[in-house]
């Protein structure tokens, strides 16, 4: 059996497990050949050039499929190139519910909702990268965040990395985002900012965190892969589809959001998402252009 056939089986098995049936079988196989394998070749090329652990940032808006893409790339890099790959989400580094409630009381009520810069434990993220960069590698415990309970799991349920990875894919909606100017914060971008952050306290704090702590974290990354959404309306639509999928799964239904709740939820992310579309469309090493049907219509590569 050829390597490609084995890889195709693992890839299709993964899609089946994830319940991704929106495209035809031929379309899935074509995506493997024309999108994901070439991207894995590009990643492996960068690893060979660096000759030590390669750190990649993979970013996209909510519901765009970044976690799925990261897992597909891991399958190819592992089984085709025999690389030791570690995929980690910035979501797993969210602050605990107790810490966010404390922020909500001390800084602004909007910090009770996870998502924006300031709601992650940046010290834990920094420690994670520093541990991976050490010459003498020791096993690392990576936190796990359970969105169904909106809290971090106990340490005995954290991920363990026993072997130093050759390639690290750090995925998340705001990975690679840059801060805006203070002047750009003045005009509210949606009703959340207009009515719930009238004094700009939340916006300014988020922006300051993004300008300092988050840029320090992102400086560990060698390249960015950016999934570009066609417009922000699709973010709401795809995020809603995610919620429907969650409802159909075996997870508790207590945390399922209504359409009205989802509409408000994506407002937390809107400003930074739109800024990332402007910035990373030009600066990312790889840009995946998505169409309204949630498909990758083109991939752009920039040699750096």
Summarize the structure in short:
With 304 residues, this protein is of the alpha/beta class. It has helices at residues 3-17, 25-50, 66-79, 97-106, 122-133, 191-196, 201-211, 213-218, 232-248, 259-283, and strands at 54-59, 85-89, 140-142, 145-146, 151-152, 159-161, 167-171, 223-228, 286-290, 296-301.
Would you list the SSEs in sequence order as H and E? HHEHEHHEEEEEHHHEHHEE
CATH superfamily grouping: P-loop containing nucleotide triphosphate hydrolases
Structural class: alpha/beta
Helix content: 40-55%
Question: Can you characterise this structure?
Answer:
- This protein is of the alpha/beta class and 304 residues long.
- It has a single domain (3-301), classed as P-loop containing nucleotide triphosphate hydrolases (Rossmann fold), CATH 3.40.50.300.
- Helices cover 47% and strands 14% of the residues.
- The protein contains ten helices and ten strands.
- The protein has helices spanning 3-17, 25-50, 66-79, 97-106, 122-133, 191-196, 201-211, 213-218, 232-248, 259-283; strands at 54-59, 85-89, 140-142, 145-146, 151-152, 159-161, 167-171, 223-228, 286-290, 296-301.
- The strands form three sheets. A six-stranded mixed beta sheet has the order 2-7-1-8-9-10, sandwiched between helices.
- Strand 9 and strand 10 (296-301) form a beta hairpin.
- The protein is globular and about 60 Å long.
- The two termini are 37 Å apart.
- 30% of the residues are buried.
């Amino acid at each position: 059996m050829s390597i490609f056939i084995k890889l195709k089986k693992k890839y299709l098995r993964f899609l089946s497990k994830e319940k991704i049936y929106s495209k035809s079988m031929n379309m899935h196989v074509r995506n493997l050949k024309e999108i994901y394998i070439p991207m894995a070749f590009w990643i492996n090329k960068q690893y060979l050039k660096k000759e030590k652990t390669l750190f990649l940032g993979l970013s996209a808006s909510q519901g765009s499929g970044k976690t799925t893409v990261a897992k597909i790339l891991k399958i190819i890099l592992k089984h085709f190139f025999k690389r030791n790959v570690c995929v980690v989400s910035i979501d797993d580094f969210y602050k605990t519910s107790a810490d966010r409630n404390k922020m909500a009381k001390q800084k602004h009520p909007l910090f009770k909702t996870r998502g924006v810069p300031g709601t992650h434990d940046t010290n834990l993220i920094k420690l994670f990268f520093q541990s991976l960069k050490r010459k003498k590698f020791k096993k690392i415990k990576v936190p796990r965040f359970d969105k169904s309970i909106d809290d971090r799991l106990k340490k005995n349920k954290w991920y363990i990395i026993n072997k130093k990875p050759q390639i690290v894919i750090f995925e998340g909606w705001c990975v690679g985002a840059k801060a805006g100017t203070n002047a750009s914060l003045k005009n509210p971008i949606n009703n959340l900012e207009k009515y719930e952050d009238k004094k700009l306290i939340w916006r300014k704090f988020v922006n300051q965190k993004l300008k300092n702590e988050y840029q320090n974290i992102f400086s560990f990354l060698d390249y960015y892969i950016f999934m570009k959404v066609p417009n922000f309306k699709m973010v709401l639509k795809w995020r809603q589809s995610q919620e429907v999928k969650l409802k159909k799964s075996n997870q508790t239904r207590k945390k399922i959001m209504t359409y009205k709740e989802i509409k408000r939820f994506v407002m937390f992310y809107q400003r930074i998402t739109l800024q990332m579309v402007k910035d990373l469309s030009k600066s990312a090493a790889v840009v995946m252009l998505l169409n309204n049907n949630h498909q990758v219509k083109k991939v752009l590569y920039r040699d750096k």
